[in-house]
Amino acid sequence: MQTKKRYRPNVAAVILSSDYPRKCEFFLGKRSDVKNTWQFPQGGIDGNETPREALLRELKEEIGCNRVDIIAEYPYWIKYDFPNGVTARKMYPFDGQTQKYFLVKLKNDAKINLDFFHEPEFEDYRYVEYAQLLKKATYFKRRVYRRVIEHFVREGYLIDVNSA
After folding, report:
1. Of these four, 11, 91, 112, 161, which has the most CB atoms within 10 Å of its CB?
2. At a CB cut-off of 8 Å and minimum separation 6, what does 58 contact?
3. Taking the C-alpha atoms of 52, 15, 29 and 31 in order, what is their torsion angle to the nearest 10 degrees?
4. Does pTM top 0.90 for this prediction?
5. 3-class DSSP state for residue 73?
6. Where do the structural domains in the chain lie, given as residue ranges?
7. Average pLDDT, 10 consecutive residues per value, the chain (164 residues)
8. Superfamily of domain 7-154
9. Which residues contact 45 (CB under 8 A, 6 or more apart)?
10. Computed over its alpha carbons, how large is the radius of gyration of the chain?
11. Which residue blocks in 20-78 are alpha helix, DSSP H?
């Protein structure tokens, strides 16, 4: 008998620097609990939170800042399984995550503070161009990142990702 997989409801933020659209760069954080893993900020949806409420809370917890403009929301939930051998403190007892992605832009006065929360999610961060993003992001998220960003480009929410 096959057991039903369990997926953690989750939000993820595709963060554009405050320099956008002059410069198209994306925030990538280096996880503190999974070696050599760079990814977008993301986190679980608690209790009765809406995805937007969870997004703002997670941004505050993970990067110490939720001073963003929400540009767009990806219209579908994206489900993925955790790869074998990859473990993090929040993965158990789930087999994967179902995520709602948001495209956000940091406000001009936004200040990143990775030490804001008592258990920092990230130990470092970078703003990277699209081509770098697809090379630096952890391997099992690249396809999803490409799919989400290409959707935002097609819909006109994001421009000049390849000309940066």
Report:
1. 11
2. 11, 13, 41, 42, 43, 44
3. 20
4. yes
5. strand
6. 7-154
7. 86 97 96 92 95 98 97 96 69 86 97 92 96 94 96 94 63
8. Nucleoside Triphosphate Pyrophosphohydrolase (3.90.79.10)
9. 9, 10, 11, 51, 54
10. 15
11. 51-63
